[in-house]
Amino acid sequence: MTTGTNITEQTRIVTELANRYWNARHEFHFDSPTGTIEECLSRAMASATHPVVISDSGDNPGGGGNSDQTFFLQALLKAGTKDVLLGGMTDRPATDACYRAGVGATLPLSIGATLDPLMCRPVQIKKAVVKHLTPVTRPEEGEAVVEFDGITATLSARRRLYHSAESFRDIGVDPAQFKIVVLKCGYLHPTMKVLANPALMALSPGAINQDILHIGNHRRQPTWPWVADLAWTPKPYVSARFERK
Question: Where exactly are the structural domains of the chain?
């Protein structure tokens, strides 16, 4: 979009810009290897280096995700993966239960699917050990660290970003000490990127699913990339605001 008084020149400019975007469409790519949750997890488990840092990109709270989806947690438990840090699970009831139990307590927990129970199911943990509780004055600020089945998970009463290494170290967890770190984020924060060995991005389900081709397109058709060989040329138009003048 351009603004100005010379319609001819504006038309030339927007046409040029639109063509440049269109012609560069195949050059856009992720800066980390991508795959499904299962593909990324399989690669991480086979890696000879660590920590392997995996982005749970579809449930990134920084991009509008709920941060309570359990698809990754389900996959971790199914695969029997150990030595894992799962960062960023939002679950007020589970967090409150940890505060009631206290540090050192062992308790059953239902984790996840509290903000959006229609997207996925909660995971029932029989024995979770409370390792840390952040001192807070308001329950809605609570955050806990729990351990179960070889997994260390952060729980928070509200959505918050666990993207940087400091966000974990502040609650007594060092991400560098784990074989696998799963973060509810998209691109890695610089402090995590330097630790990643390697970094992977899971194109996971969620409110901001990055697996574009597998998201249904029901309104604007035909549209690229759903139509791979789409032919398109820009058609500039003058806004209704200008025409009313």
Answer: 35-204
